[in-house]
UniProtKB/TrEMBL annotation:
<dbReference type="InterPro" id="IPR010452">
    <property type="entry name" value="Isocitrate_DH_AceK"/>
</dbReference>
<feature type="domain" description="Isocitrate dehydrogenase kinase/phosphatase (AceK) regulatory">
    <location>
        <begin position="15"/>
        <end position="318"/>
    </location>
</feature>
<dbReference type="GO" id="GO:0005737">
    <property type="term" value="C:cytoplasm"/>
</dbReference>
<dbReference type="GO" id="GO:0005524">
    <property type="term" value="F:ATP binding"/>
</dbReference>
<dbReference type="GO" id="GO:0008772">
    <property type="term" value="F:[isocitrate dehydrogenase (NADP+)] kinase activity"/>
</dbReference>
<keyword id="KW-0816">Tricarboxylic acid cycle</keyword>
<keyword id="KW-0963">Cytoplasm</keyword>
<keyword id="KW-0329">Glyoxylate bypass</keyword>
<feature type="binding site">
    <location>
        <position position="346"/>
    </location>
    <ligand>
        <name>ATP</name>
    </ligand>
</feature>
<dbReference type="GO" id="GO:0016208">
    <property type="term" value="F:AMP binding"/>
</dbReference>
<dbReference type="GO" id="GO:0006006">
    <property type="term" value="P:glucose metabolic process"/>
</dbReference>
<comment type="function">
    <text>Bifunctional enzyme which can phosphorylate or dephosphorylate isocitrate dehydrogenase (IDH) on a specific serine residue. This is a regulatory mechanism which enables bacteria to bypass the Krebs cycle via the glyoxylate shunt in response to the source of carbon. When bacteria are grown on glucose, IDH is fully active and unphosphorylated, but when grown on acetate or ethanol, the activity of IDH declines drastically concomitant with its phosphorylation.</text>
</comment>
<feature type="active site">
    <location>
        <position position="381"/>
    </location>
</feature>
<comment type="similarity">
    <text>Belongs to the AceK family.</text>
</comment>
<feature type="region of interest" description="Disordered">
    <location>
        <begin position="597"/>
        <end position="630"/>
    </location>
</feature>
<dbReference type="GO" id="GO:0006099">
    <property type="term" value="P:tricarboxylic acid cycle"/>
</dbReference>
<dbReference type="InterPro" id="IPR046854">
    <property type="entry name" value="AceK_regulatory"/>
</dbReference>
Length: 630
């Protein structure tokens, strides 16, 4: 029972200490995010990457710091539950005018669950549901930056309004030709509004801070006309250090979903009221869960909190059962899913076949590497949980038997909470977005037959995207290790994403070699490897027999990605990365780039480039934003 009055000064002090701990965390988080503008302006790409990586650790550091203070100063673990009741109520009161209450509540949960026994993890002691509303929250000081700004253009002066929008962000770098860029953006916006009658509420709304990621800065907003809202994003890049240009204009929910994908690095954004940013982004991408938007903004713990709330809500309103996930079973990970829920659950097995020379600790380190690394749109983000309780009646017996066989150390079946319900408790697991395994995607095309045009297009797309995924990973200094089709998945947008991390390595740690020529007939005819192979040796020529057994697949692969079988491709990229080059990976279709579109138009009209308006110089092998390597 909750107390009828708050009579414990100690409870108030503990609540205040937790609020102070969170405020310190968010101050450091905002400070690091705000510095992203300076790193962008000075083209400090390695510093930007380092900040993206290190900021992920901020939350756990501050939680542990707060726990140590509470234990040392108040012996928090020994306090009566009546005091903890009051702590939560005091804490709620302190959040009434707080600008990040939802984040503070998650911080409270993190701190208290490290101190209290698991049997107390229920609504009396933590925030299973949010306690403070974030609706209509906004800064009150007119001198402070609001969540978003509104601009009211006229058709005849649209480019001038676009310029006003861009200049409102106060970037300290000059643009190569801002007037040209604003005309391009205005033309693209007017094309989106073609054949639409302008309404009295015609306006442009933009979030008040730029979104920084690696070498790019993104202006995010929407066009509003009557009941029509058109999301857009403008990527701003460096032509040369200190000289900026707007590279493209992206429109519509699909473009933004790809930009904010779960397979990309988190943005650096300075936000006073993060819930306001999430609410605005939801208006641009209504199908994207709030959990993933908080993740994209770098607030991964809040994303994890919301994901778990969504998961519990889904369990309450569904009746299907957890099962062994369809597809080829892995040697290292045991994977299960709930058919009605768009995620998969992955456990590290207790033991592995002899060819897998690894350990649980090493596998966890690989997943942590991916969490901290730039995922370049080609590696799925994962949520890591411990001590997760599921209702036993929702598990198929076959799945329970599978876990008992391959991962018994991670399984407990009991009524740990003493509430009369038996639970399946998984001691450690990873959760990631469900995708169609690439081998199944290809098999569907094979099964449809050679004469089916749709199947042929699906196979072409799968093979080309598979090679593109590997090349993007290479640009990010990642060697996938096990490149079999089954270790890649296809997203709703048709992107091929890698999701089997137990063998990944940095490209710079590998030794890419040609297969030595046989010295005699005996070696040439041998079915065994007759040459020495070191622990970091990789022989790209040997990929073919494992990947390209189907002649149609081989033809497509060799046409588009035959260079992946040549050690020189890997060695050249290795040299560039070791030399400090930050390579670019495109988060949008290269055809969307203003310079590329202009060049394509000029080519199709057979106009000589010297007679056309100057276009952006683009290296044929380069890309734009820039999801660079470590």
């Amino acid at each position: 029972m909750f107390p009828t009055q708050l009579d414990s000064p100690l409870a108030w002090e503990i609540a205040k200490a937790i609020v102070d701990g969170f405020n310190r965390h968010y101050h450091l988080f905002r400070t690091e995010s705000a510095r992203a503008q300076h790193r962008f302006e000075t083209a400090d790409w390695h510093g930007q990457q380092r900040a993206q990586r290190e900021r992920i650790e901020f939350y756990d550091l501050r939680v542990n710091e707060c726990v140590r203070r509470l234990e040392k100063q108040y012996q928090a673990g020994d306090l009566a539950m009546g005091i903890w009741h009051q702590v939560k109520l005091h804490f709620l009161g302190m959040l009434v005018n707080h600008r990040q209450p939802e984040l503070a509540e998650s911080f409270f949960n993190s701190v208290t669950t490290k101190i209290l026994h698991r049997s107390y993890f229920h609504n009396d002691f933590i925030f299973v549901r949010p306690g403070i509303s974030t609706e209509y929250m906004e800064v009150e000081d007119e001198n402070e930056r609001p969540t978003y700004r509104a601009f009211y253009p006229k058709l005849a002066t649209m480019a001038d309004t676009v310029r006003e929008v861009v200049e409102s962000f106060g970037l300290h770098c000059g643009f190569e030709d801002l007037a040209r860029d604003c005309r391009r953006v205005a033309d693209a916006m007017l094309w989106q509004l073609a054949n639409i009658k302008l309404r009295p509420n015609f306006q442009i709304q933009v979030l008040a801070t730029l979104f920084y990621r690696n070498k790019g800065a993104y202006l995010v907003g929407k066009l509003i006309n009557g009941f029509v809202e058109i999301p857009f994003a403008l990527p701003i890049l460096h032509r040369t250090p200190g000289v900026l240009y707007i590279d493209a204009a992206l429109f519509g929910e699909e473009d933004l979903l790809i930009l904010f994908s779960f397979s990309r690095a988190y943005f650096l954004v300075d936000m006073e009221i993060p819930s306001g940013y999430v609410q605005f982004l939801r208006s641009l991408m209504p199908r994207k869960p709030r959990a993933e938007l908080y993740n994209a903004l770098g607030l991964a713990k809040q994303g994890k909190t919301l994901f778990y709330r969504d998961f519990l809500w889904h369990l309450r309103h569904s009746t299907d059962k957890f099962r062994i996930a369809p597809g080829i079973k892995g040697m290292v990970m045991l994977v299960f899913d709930l058919p009605s829920f768009p995620f998969v659950f992955k456990l590290i097995k207790d033991y592995y076949p002899p060819q897998k020379d690894t350990t649980r600790e090493l596998i966890r380190s690989k997943y942590l590497l991916v969490k901290h690394h730039d995922r370049v749109g080609r590696m799925a983000d994962t949520l890591e949980f411990s001590e997760v309780a599921f209702p036993r009646e929702r598990f198929e017996d076959e799945l329970i038997a599978e876990i008992q066989k391959f991962a018994p150390s991670l399984l407990e079946i009991s009524d740990r909470d003493g509430d009369g319900r038996t639970e399946v408790i998984i001691k450690h697991l990873y959760i990631e977005r469900r995708m169609v395994p690439l081998n199944i995607y290809l098999q569907e095309a094979f099964d449809a037959g050679d004469d089916n045009p749709s199947a042929a297009a699906q196979m072409q797309h799968a093979v080309v995207e598979y090679g593109n995924a590997i090349k993007d990973l290479v640009a990010a200094n990642i060697f996938p290790g096990d490149m079999l089709w089954k270790n890649f998945g296809v997203t709703r947008h048709g992107k091929v994403v890698f999701y089997d991390y137990d063998e990944i390595e940095y490209i710079t740690d590998c030794n890419f070699r040609k297969v030595p020529k046989p010295r005699n007939e005996e070696e040439e005819m041998s079915g065994e490897v007759w040459y020495k192979v070191g622990p970091t040796d990789v022989f790209p020529e040997t990929f073919g027999p494992f990947l390209l057994g189907n002649p149609r697949v081989r033809d497509i692969f060799m046409q588009h990605h035959g260079d992946l079988l040549d050690p020189k491709f890997w060695q050249d990229h290795q040299t560039r990365i070791k030399g400090g080059e930050v390579m670019d990976v495109f988060p949008y279709d290269p055809a969307r780039r203003f310079g590329m579109a202009q060049a394509a138009s000029a080519h199709s009209a057979e106009v000589d480039a010297d007679d056309d308006a100057p276009s952006d110089p683009v290296d044929a092998g380069s890309v734009s934003e820039t999801e660079p390597s470590e």
